[in-house]
Structure formats: structure tokens, C-alpha cells
Write a structure and sequence with these properties.
Layout lengths: L2 H29 L24 H15 L7 H27 L7 H19 L8 E4 L4 E4 L4 H19 L5 H19 L3 H21 L8 H18 L3 H7 L1 H20 L9 H7 L4 H25 L3
Antiparallel strand pairs: 1-2
């Protein structure tokens, strides 16, 4: 397939998914059946109580519709089936989590143990699907050095950490208006380039569809947000970039572009360990974006600051990819 046709498909997927996302998100807002229940830990967040949630449904559907439309008459392989499977399953886990929150009218959904068990089971089946592909799941590519590390029998544990970790770190990052959606859009850019270079055109179209969908969602999610994505959205986004990194053998690139998400998750882990062992808190509040709010930084400034860090990491990842021979 010519590069011109691929380019047209990608542009169409972005425009079409953005349009669909705006339509679906507006409908979810107007319906307003699922609303956020705030924990009231931060005074400035009290106004968010009652904001419509569940926006993840909108960009999940718009991404799928735009992808299938833009990839008409293209041959699907195990890799795209694996990506579609794992992202849909993680979306469903988040969807039921949101459902139980709505049912109980609180911030409590599925128990943490059940969520982790479901997510690990999804990753295991994801690996089973990829076993039929040409991927060597035992190897971790090291960019720039053009070498790899063979992790042998630990590959399954590693893949679970990558996928479950990326999903839940974005879930933790989704605490400020526009933060998770915007950072994910930025983080996707290097993977679109990588997929095009690897001639994984279906993945490039899928990611482009997701970017367009997030653009449409972000229009309503940017401060002050009219809608939140919910766990269905954050778990879905994390599963997409995690599984794409595995399929493209670019887990190190994921670590770089997703460093903000990693820091968000680590801040929570550090806080819990510190409080349980010493009774003291390292941060005023976690995830770390709330620490800055507690210090008096305006929400929009925190979000924009994190965006700038995300853009820097994206550029850094692109440079590393280039030095690695892309």
C-alpha cells in the first residue's frame, strides 16, 4: 500500500474520530446519568462534585468506529487483534468499576484485588494471542545501543508489569481536568512514528484514531471540565499504550514518554510506604499533582506544567528513536 494512501487514511481517522468523539461526548454530557463523587480532599475540587463522568465510553467508541472505517480492505493480523482485545477488555474492567461507583453513589467501585486479578488474566490471554505472531516476547530492545536483553522465563511477569502498570498509572494521573487525556495524546506521538517505520500501518491508524478521539474529548475535559473520562477511559488509555509498546518492542520508549505517569504512581507508592513505616508523609498529598495543588499552584498551571514535561519527554524519545536507526 502506498504511503499516500496510508497518509490519507491516517488524516481521515483523526478527523472522523474527533467528530465522532464530540458527538458522543456531548450526548453523554446531556444524558448526565453518571456523575462524579469527589472525596473533598481539596477545597478547590468541591465544585467538581456532580460533574458528569464516563467520558471514556465516548472516545472508546469513536476510536473503534474511526479505526474500522479507516482500515477498510486492509488485512488484519494477530498484532492488531491482540491490541483490540486487550484495550477492549481493560475498557470493560473500567466500565464495570464506574458502574459500581454509580450504583453505590460513591468513589468506591470494584475492589482492588478483583481489578488486579482481571487485569492479569487479560494480559495472560494477550500473551497467548501474540504467541501466534512473529514477536520475540522474551527480548527487551535497548534503543541507541541496538541490542537487547533476554529476560527468558520472566517475560510474562515483565509484560504484566508493563500493561497493568501503564493502565493504573494513567488511572492515578486522571485527577485534574485535562491532565490524563492531554498527556496520553503527547505520549502516543512517538508510537505513531514507530509503527509507521515498522510498517505496522494498522496500529498507526488505530493510534491516530485515538488521538482524534482524545482531541474531541479534551474539548470538554479541559479546565473547567464538563466531563471526566472515568476508569473506563483511563484504564483503556493505559492498556493501549502499554500493549502498543509491547507489540512494537519499544518498552524503553514507553518508560521515557510515560515517565510522568510513572512518577505519579511512584509518588503514591512512596507515600504509602513512608506513612506505614514512619508515620510521616513525604508529599502533602498524592498522586503528586495534588501535592502541587496543596502548595497553592493553580490547577491549570499544574496541568500545563505537566504537558511541558510530557512534550520534553516525547522529543527525547524521538531523538533516541532516531539515534537508534529509525
Amino acid at each position: 500500500m502506498s504511503r499516500e494512501i496510508i497518509f490519507i487514511r491516517i488524516v481521515f481517522s483523526i478527523i472522523f474520530s474527533c467528530f465522532l468523539s464530540v458527538v458522543f461526548t456531548k450526548r453523554i454530557i446531556s444524558k448526565g446519568s453518571n456523575r462524579q463523587v469527589e472525596r473533598n480532599y481539596i477545597d478547590t475540587h468541591n465544585v467538581k462534585n456532580g460533574t458528569v463522568s464516563g467520558g471514556g465510553k465516548g472516545f472508546f467508541l469513536s476510536t473503534l468506529i474511526a479505526f474500522f472505517t479507516s482500515s477498510l480492505f486492509m488485512s488484519y493480523d494477530y498484532k492488531i487483534f491482540a491490541l483490540l482485545f486487550v484495550s477492549t477488555m481493560f475498557f470493560l474492567v473500567g466500565y464495570f468499576d464506574d458502574y459500581f461507583k454509580k450504583k453505590s453513589n460513591s468513589y468506591k467501585g470494584l475492589s482492588g484485588k478483583i481489578r488486579i486479578i482481571l487485569e492479569i488474566a487479560i494480559v495472560i490471554y494477550f500473551v497467548v494471542i501474540l504467541k501466534n505472531s512473529d514477536l520475540d516476547l522474551h527480548r527487551i530492545n535497548i534503543p541507541v545501543l541496538n541490542t537487547y536483553i533476554d529476560i527468558k522465563y520472566f517475560f510474562l511477569v515483565f509484560l504484566i508489569i508493563v500493561l497493568v502498570g501503564s493502565s493504573n498509572s494513567i488511572n492515578l494521573t486522571d485527577g485534574l481536568d485535562g491532565l490524563a487525556a492531554g498527556l496520553t495524546m503527547i505520549a502516543i506521538a512517538p508510537f505513531i512514528l514507530l509503527s509507521l517505520y515498522s510498517k505496522e500501518y494498522l496500529i498507526a491508524i488505530f493510534l491516530s484514531s485515538l488521538v482524534g478521539s482524545l482531541m474531541g474529548f479534551l474539548y470538554f475535559n479541559f479546565p473547567p471540565a464538563k466531563i471526566f473520562m472515568g476508569d473506563s477511559g483511563s484504564l483503556y488509555l493505559g492498556s493501549v499504550i502499554g500493549s502498543v509498546a509491547i507489540i512494537l518492542k519499544s518498552e524503553i520508549i514507553l518508560l521515557i514518554v510515560g515517565l510522568v505517569f510513572v512518577i505519579e504512581a511512584l509518588s503514591v507508592i512512596i507515600q504509602v510506604i513512608s506513612f506505614k513505616t514512619t508515620g510521616k508523609r513525604v508529599f502533602l498529598m498524592t498522586p503528586i499533582h495534588h501535592h502541587f495543588e496543596k502548595k497553592g499552584v493553580d490547577e491549570v498551571r499544574v496541568v500545563m506544567g505537566f504537558y511541558l514535561v510530557g512534550i520534553f519527554l516525547c522529543v527525547l524519545a524521538l531523538i533516541i528513536e532516531t539515534l537508534g536507526g529509525i
